[in-house]
Amino acid sequence: MFKANRLALAVAAVSLSAGVFAAPAGTLATVNGVAIPAARADLFVKDLAQRGQKDTPELRAKVKDELIKNEVVYQEALKKGVEKNPDLIAQMEMMKQRLVIGAFVSQYVKANPITDAEVRKEYDKIKVNFGGKEYKARHILVATEPEANAILADLKKGKKFEDLAKDKSMDKGSGSNGGDLGWANPNNFVKEFSEAMTKMPKGKISEKAVKTQFGFHIIKVDDVRDAKGPSYEEVKPQLEQQMQAQRIQKMVEDLVAKAKIAE
């Protein structure tokens, strides 16, 4: 009990000597008589939490310390008249405008949400473009035509395409997988490669090397299927974001159209 009383007296003595007094309710601390609102700390912590930090007493203690330091430096800057600098005033006005615009747009988005029905309607409109074919192809890429011809000769002798791709292809990404390029839309490839691939029957190897900007390709078509396209669930987030951006743009354009602008 005696030790506890001594500790309490010591803390009180340090507090008084430092000029720190009990802060009013709703106040985090006071610095030279200026109150730091507790709400400011809450906002600070909320921002950090959104970035992945956990709201803990330790984090709040660090935030409090940081806000006190900020207030001390801010008060000193005011004493020096820094806030009267014309460039700084212009920057603060711009920052204020951005913050207000950001808050306004956030309110607009909440008040005008994109509904699931609207997103599904948009998905149905673009779904018609998902047609066509997809190809599961392999290739072996080399630098010169003689190298490609030598590989074609090896294939005719019975050597496996996959083994030659691993040993000879400059495309190490697909080469390590036997030249496998996976399922893809022809539009994903350069024109010369795409045109040659789409003319080949399933299971066949190109009779001659296909020249592109990357070198000489020997192509094998493993399979062909009708293109499925992404599902509604896969594209819904991107569609929502795109439609919301379009709605915001329309709102801004309407405001500009109504505004009286003089130059």
From TrEMBL:
Fetch the InterPro entries from UniProt. Answer: PPIase_dom_sf, PPIase_PpiC, PPIase_PpiC_CS, PrsA_foldase, Trigger_fact/SurA_dom_sf
Q: Note whether Mitochondrion occurs among the keywords.
A: no
- The segment(s) forming the PpiC domain are 132-223
Name the catalysed reactions.
Answer: [protein]-peptidylproline (omega=180) = [protein]-peptidylproline (omega=0)
Record EC number: 5.2.1.8
Q: Is this entry keyworded Isomerase? A: yes
Q: Domain of life, per the record? A: Bacteria
Keyword line: Isomerase, Rotamase, Signal
Leader sequence residues: 1-22
Gene Ontology MF: a single term: peptidyl-prolyl cis-trans isomerase activity
Q: Could you say which protein family the record assigns here?
A: Belongs to the PpiC/parvulin rotamase family.
Q: What's the protein called, per UniProt?
A: peptidylprolyl isomerase
